[in-house]
Design goal:
Blueprint lengths: L1 H9 L10 E5 H18 L2 E7 L4 E5 H19 L7 E9 L3 E8 L6 H6 L22 H11 L3 E5 L5 E8 L2
Parallel strand pairs: 2-4
Antiparallel strand pairs: 1-3, 4-5, 5-7, 6-7
């Protein structure tokens, strides 16, 4: 089961399977990812909300953007389970400036340990902070895959300081 899951997560990285860059509507990709996790979120009593600019576009590989968002939201769903907050939530926002598109995914989970931030290891393959709270310690590939997918599209994935939980920002060129 774990090997099957690992191969499914690696499959989109195969270069022969990735499409070409094209104009992508950011809100459409975000809503597709929210739909993907809608049932799981409902079962875990987690609210996933999206607030963003409707007409934001980027020229990117569609599968890369989808995969990056899905990996980040999947991680957020894991971490909010351990939140002391009575209402567990994942908020996704999109906005832009003259030449860039920004997507922020903010959860109210346990957040990222100071040591992990200091050591800058969040996007390293094989790293998983899940070991702190669970026997299901993950593969350590989710954020590494997401970061690689965004970089392939001339973008950037970073952790943003957050008072509560974790916040990841994807920056892409406007398209």
């Amino acid at each position: 089961k774990r090997m099957s899951s690992l191969f499914n997560r690696l499959d989109p990285l195969a270069t022969n399977k990735r499409g070409k860059s094209k104009k992508i509507k950011i809100s459409k990709k975000i809503n597709e990812v929210i739909q993907l996790f809608e049932e799981i979120a409902k079962q875990k009593d987690v609210e996933i909300s999206y607030n963003g600019i409707e007409d934001l576009y980027t020229n990117s590989i569609e599968d890369d953007i989808y995969m990056a968002l899905a990996n980040i939201v999947e991680n957020a769903l894991f971490w909010v389970e351990f939140s002391p907050e009575p209402k567990k939530s994942i908020k996704i926002m999109s906005y832009g400036d003259d030449d860039k598109v920004y997507i922020e995914i903010l959860d109210n989970g346990l957040g990222i340990s100071e040591e992990d931030l200091k050591n800058n290891i969040l996007f390293s393959p094989g790293y998983s902070g899940k070991r702190r709270v669970s026997n299901d310690n993950g593969t350590g590939l989710g954020l590494a895959i997401a970061g690689e997918a965004i970089q392939r599209n001339k973008g950037k994935l970073e952790v943003i300081e957050s008072i509560k939980g974790a916040c990841f920002r994807i920056t892409l060129l406007k398209g």
